[in-house]
């Protein structure tokens, strides 16, 4: 099983190119299947979740051409199955986007329920509430969600919970429903806007994505187009925090600074120097940073997907910080791993109290989920001596060339599988 070996102590310095947004691309790929013509999606991140989604779409019969590692052409005309069920689907959550896409286009679909996740129960009741409001019948049996509608009719839907997935999923189905749909209490994440923009380029009529109310005027058919995924705000934020934590100087390139405003504001508040350009943000870490209070919120609030990473930074800041996780009920599983590295972090319910320490020390740690895994890598890059991170399969799901990009910034990190590779890494890095 692939693992990371890290030798801490080097400040990260230089430029890093940010890939396309994983959580936008998953919705975009599902939306692309809704036309019976070719839809070309560019700037896809080459990560496991995206490749699994493309494979799943191909298995449904759509014609898929992988032009290069970041570009795929999808033609839904040849889709022959609206049942999506395989071992990969049961592990990967976002296959549920095919429910909304296929319900809109074919009037029915069956998708394996996503497994639970390490960060919380993650129900999909709001997705199903939206489909039912549009006139679909919904059954959940044998680990499968089945949706069926003779005809989808526009409706006024008020989500009980702000949900990225439910907003995107129901918006896709509504795009081909008859009449007008109003979606309220929706998610405003950049990836919701990205999917709405693609659907509109395909001929849909969607207004208000990125605001509290999305209005959809259903259309009969969608057509082919070309589209490029927005940059990944969370990958960018991860490298920004890594720069701050290692007291480095990193410019994240190919980003939309507006999407990073909350992260940049928080880093400035705790003492980093942040310089913003048209499509880049530069982060200069300035010695020991200040403590702070963080509460994760739906966009444009502080992203839950950045919570583990900022917690590592606060674990090294001066003073006591408070981190409140208001989106998921179990997103502090990395805390025990940080304790092994000498952090002082105490979790009570959905609040973590973090007393900053001067430095962390290397240890063997496990990545409990995608973002916590990235956070532990950041901790290792700051720690004295060696940190061994196992279970990096989670990290591979969402970060393209993660170790390569960190090495290009001066980080001492390698993917290893055997004892011999571990020893070789230690020998090479001990020489310095
Ligand atoms: C998306 O998950 C992202 N995943 C998550 O990123 C991200 O953390 C999350 O949005 C919040 O920004 C993808 O886009 C593939 P939600 P999603 O529906 O859509 C509750 C990562 O690291 N809820 O916005 O599943 C839910 O339990 C991943 O890239 C319901 O109660 O998140 C949670 O408490 C982790 N009923 C809250 O809403 C529902 O029907 C927000 O969840 C749906 C959600």
Fraction of helical residues = 25-40%
Low-confidence stretches are none
Major sheet strand order: 22-23-1-24
Q: Which oligomeric form is depicted?
A: single chain
Shape: globular
Ligand types: ligand EPZ
- Gyration radius (Cα, Å) is 22 Å
Number of strands: 24
Distance between the termini: 27 Å
| Main β-sheet description | 4 strands, mixed
What is the count of helical runs? 15
Which band does the percent of strand residues land in? 15-25%
**Average pLDDT number:** 96
Structural class: alpha/beta
Structure characterization notes:
The two termini are 27 Å apart. The chain has helices spanning 22-32, 48-59, 87-91, 97-106, 125-133, 164-175, 190-201, 233-245, 261-269, 307-315, 335-340, 370-382, 393-398, 402-408, 419-431; strands at residues 3-7, 13-17, 38-42, 63-68, 71-75, 83-84, 108-112, 137-141, 144-148, 156-158, 180-184, 206-207, 213-217, 225-228, 249-253, 273-276, 280-284, 293-295, 320-324, 344-348, 351-355, 364-366, 386-390, 412-416. Strands 22-23-1-24 form a 4-stranded mixed beta sheet, sandwiched between helices. β18, α10 and β19 (320-324) form a beta-alpha-beta unit. α10 (307-315) packs parallel to α12. The radius of gyration is 22 Å and the shape is globular. Helices cover 34% and strands 25% of the residues. The chain has 15 helices and 24 strands. The chain has 432 residues and is of the alpha/beta class. The structure holds ligand EPZ.
């Amino acid at each position: 099983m692939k693992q990371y070996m890290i030798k801490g102590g080097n400040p990260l310095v230089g430029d890093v190119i940010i890939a396309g947004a994983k959580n936008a691309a998953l919705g975009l790929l599902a939306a692309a299947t809704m036309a019976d013509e070719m839809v070309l999606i560019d700037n896809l991140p080459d990560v496991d979740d995206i490749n699994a989604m493309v494979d799943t779409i191909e298995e449904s019969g759509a014609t898929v051409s992988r032009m290069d590692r970041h570009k795929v052409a999808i033609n839904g005309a040849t889709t022959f199955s609206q049942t999506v069920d395989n071992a990969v689907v049961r592990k990967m959550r976002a296959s549920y986007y095919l429910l909304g896409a296929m319900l809109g286009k074919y009037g029915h679909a069956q998708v394996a329920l996503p497994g639970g996740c390490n960060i919380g129960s993650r129900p999909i009741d709001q997705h199903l509430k939206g489909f039912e409001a549009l006139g679909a019948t919904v059954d959940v049996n044998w680990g499968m969600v089945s949706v069926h509608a003779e005809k989808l009719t526009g409706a006024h839907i008020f989500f009980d919970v702000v949900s990225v997935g439910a907003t995107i999923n129901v918006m896709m189905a509504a795009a081909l429903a008859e009449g007008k749909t109003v979606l309220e209490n929706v998610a405003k994440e950049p990836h919701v806007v990205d999917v709405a923009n693609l659907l509109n380029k395909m001929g849909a009529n969607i207004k208000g994505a990125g605001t509290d109310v999305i209005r959809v005027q259903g259309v009969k058919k969608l057509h082919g187009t070309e589209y490029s995924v927005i940059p990944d705000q969370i990958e960018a934020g991860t490298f920004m925090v890594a720069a701050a934590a290692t007291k480095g100087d990193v410019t994240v390139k190919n980003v939309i600074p507006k999407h990073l405003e909350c992260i940049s504001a928080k880093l400035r508040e705790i003492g980093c120097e942040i310089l913003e350009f048209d499509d880049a943000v530069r982060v200069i870490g300035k010695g020991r940073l200040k403590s702070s209070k963080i509460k994760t919120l739906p966009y444009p609030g502080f992203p839950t997907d950045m919570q583990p990473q900022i917690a590592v930074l606060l674990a090294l800041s001066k003073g006591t910080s408070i981190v409140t996780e208001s989106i998921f009920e179990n997103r502090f599983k990395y805390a025990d791993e940080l304790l092994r590295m000498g952090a002082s972090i105490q979790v009570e319910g959905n609040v973590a109290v973090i007393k900053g320490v001067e430095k962390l020390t290397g240890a063997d740690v496990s990545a409990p989920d995608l973002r916590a895994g990235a956070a532990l890598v950041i901790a290792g890059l700051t720690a004295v001596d060696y940190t061994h991170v196992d279970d990096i399969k989670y990290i591979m799901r969402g970060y393209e060339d993660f170790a390569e990009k960190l090495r290009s910034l001066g980080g001492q990190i390698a993917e290893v599988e055997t004892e011999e590779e571990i020893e070789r890494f230690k020998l090479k890095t001990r020489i310095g």
